Amino acid sequence: MSIGLIGRKVGMTQVFQDDGTMVAVSVVAIQPNTVTRVRTPERDGYTAVQLGTDVVGKLSRPEAGQLKDLPKVKTIREFRVDDVDSFEVGQTMNLGDVFAAGDEVDVTGVSKGKGTAGVIKRHNFRRGPKTHGSDHHRAPGSIGPGTTPGRVYRGMKMSGHMGDETVTVKKVRVVRTDPDRNLLLVKGSLPGARGGLILVKKA
User: Fold this and answer.
1) Averaged over 158-176, what is the pLDDT?
2) How far apart are CA 175 and CA 187, in angstroms?
3) Helices (H) and strands (E) in the chain, counts
4) Three-state DSSP state, 119
5) Who contacts 78 (Cβ-Cβ below 8 Å, separation ≥6)?
6) How confident is the model over 53-88, as pLDDT tens digits?
7) Could you give the CA distance from residue 135 to residue 139 in angstroms, rounded to a whole number?
8) Are 35 and 89 in contact (CB under 8 A)?
9) Is the bond preceding 179 in cis, omega lying within 30 degrees of 0?
């Protein structure tokens, strides 16, 4: 497993490639990430690197105590890696150090919350008939037998809360990097709203 970076979703735009084709891209702003902790098998039982970003003016005393003399970063995430020898606490990870155009990356974010939704919108059910006396146009239909088992099976697709889930889009291509402006452009759409937290790591 390889190191990733923490960023924020900016939005979508389009860019033209060298052959003239237009590509829809998502823009991710990745400010420099600071290594806040290095996990080792001897001390923690596994290898990982903890990164922080979003520098703020003030932290709570427990948070400040964890960071000690490091920058006051508000957002901290951990990435599992195979080897931690090349990382040290206080090291700064920049966009250009990790990603380049043409790389394939896995992008993780929290999808937009849709509130309570019915089975047609949530699970792509087909609607019922609109004629012949039917009054079950968008109803889910039968959810299980009666006497046996006499209950609703766990995991039945029904109406309920939709969205606001951790979603990972795998193997999306990096179209362009802009280290001067700390921007990463990847092909296609990404989960989450503008300003949402995004984790990007190599596929």
Assistant:
1) 95
2) 6
3) 4, 12
4) helix
5) 39, 48, 49, 50, 51
6) 988 888 888 888 888 888 889 999 999 998 888 888
7) 9
8) yes
9) no
CA atoms within 13 A on the CB side of 5: 23
> Sign of the C-alpha dihedral, residues 187, 192, 197, 199?
negative
Residue partners of 142: CB distance under 8 A and separation at least 6 = none
In the chain, the N- to C-terminal Cα span, in Å, equals 9
CB 157 within 8 A of CB 138: no
DSSP-assigned letter for residue 125: P
Structural Rg of the chain based on CA atoms = 23
As a whole number of angstroms, the distance between CA 76 and CA 97 comes to: 19
> CA quadruple 114, 104, 92, 181: dihedral positive or negative?
negative
